[in-house]
Amino acid sequence: MELLLNDTAKPNTVADDIVVTLKYTLTVDGEIVDSADDSDPIEFLQGAGEVISGLEAGIHGLKVGESRKITIKPADGYGEIDKEAYVTIPRDEFPSEIPLEVGIEIDVRDEDDEVMTATIAEVTNTTVTLDFNHPLAGKTLHFDVTVLELRTPTAEELEHGHVHSADWEEYEFDDDDFEDDEDDEDED
To answer: Which of the listed residues 16, 32, 136, 170 has the most CB atoms within 10 Å of its CB?
Structure first.
């Protein structure tokens, strides 16, 4: 027996384990720093930690089409500034092609070869101080949000704890999409 769901089976309010499609404008210190509009909204699994906790709490209970202005303190956003997240490195350890200017974001590798993003916080004649805090750490965030759509997640999305892109799900693979390494080696 095949079950068909109609529109009445869609969730009607934002709650945990519901996929939320949201448009928003994020303002910090009076400046718009990020946004997602109707043509390119964000989509996430509510309650799975895909977005900051303050935003999840602020939209809980909203219905499709409802809007809300949400103010989020640092503790519920990107955290307070961690003074231990600053590292001072000798200036001569930086490649010459990196512009050593305050405010520049750079990617660095740690001892485990993982890439981390840092912002140049200070430059002297002999040292460069890197800030590994999130750029919005310590900031109060002002969101203006509108819920565009709600849907029930797939079993796989629930299991994985995040939304899967519709583009990925709709793509069908066939054998021609994968290279056969053995055939490539025989050709050499």
So the answer is: 136
pLDDT by residue (tens digit) across 8-36?
A: 478 999 999 999 999 999 999 999 999 99
Q: What is the CB neighbour count within 10 angstroms for residue 22?
A: 22
**Identity at 183, one-letter amino acid code:** D
pTM of the model: 0.75
The whole-angstrom separation of Cα 144 and Cα 71 is: 9
CB 60 within 8 A of CB 14: yes
Question: Residues of 164-186 as b/e, b for ≥16 C-beta within 10 angstroms?
Answer: eeeeeeeeeeeeeeeeeeeeeee
Give the Cα-Cα-Cα angle 122, 124, 128 (nearest 5 degrees): 50
- Structural domains of the chain, ranges and CATH numbers in brackets: 11-78+137-167 (3.10.50.40), 83-131 (2.40.10.330)
Give Cβ neighbours of residue 141 (< 8 Å, ≥ 6 apart): 26, 27, 28, 52, 54, 71, 72, 77, 78
Distance CA 153, CA 151 (A): 6
pLDDT (tens digit per residue) in 117-172: 999 999 999 999 999 999 999 999 999 999 999 999 999 999 898 998 754 444 44
**Number of other CB atoms surrounding residue 138 within 10 Å:** 14
User: If residue 169 lies in a helix (H) or strand (E), which one and from where to where?
Assistant: helix 166-170
CA–CA separation, 150 and 20 (whole Å) = 5
Q: What is the DSSP letter of 156?
A: H
